[in-house]
Structure formats: structure tokens, C-alpha cells
Amino acid sequence: MASIELAPEISEDFQRILDHLLDFQVGNPSQRIDEIIDAINILSNNPLIGRPVVSGQRELIIGRSRSNGYIALYRYISAIDTVFVLAIRSQNEAGYADRD
To answer: Given the DSSP bridges, would you call strands 3-6 and 82-90 parallel, antiparallel or unpaired?
Structure first.
């Protein structure tokens, strides 16, 4: 079972998502956050489930539609059996938050 490590910036991603949910009065925003966390935890048993993207990174699609779906960017390092979650964004966002 792979371990999962979250980048420190993930807390900013969760805050941005939560703020958006609260701004648009989406029902039960904490449940949405829990669903994202549950999906990320699946990576411990299936670290290669996400679609491959650039530079050895992968994307895990979370949710069923553009209106309530999210994408987690991660990298799996098999040598240490660890998934590093780098960023989370809404499927409606054009890209990942600028980390500069």
C-alpha cells in the first residue's frame, strides 16, 4: 500500500475550493471536501489509476461532471511507494494555481 503525501500548498487549494462552494451556496461544502479526500485515498491502493500527463505526473479525475468535478495532480514514486499530491483544482479551472 502506497503512502500519500500532500504538498503544503494543498491547503490553499482546499481553501480556494471551499471559498468557491460557500460563495455559490453549494449544499454541504464540507462533504465535497471529504469526497475529494476519499478519492485521493484511493491512490494508496491504485497509485497508477490517474491519467498520465507531463514529466511523470498523473491526474486523478474526481467526480462525475464538470459542474462538481475536481482534478488532483500527483506523482507516484515507485521506488519509495509514495504518492505525492501536488495540486487540486476544479475541472472548470483552466490550470493549477500558480505556486510562484
So the answer is: parallel
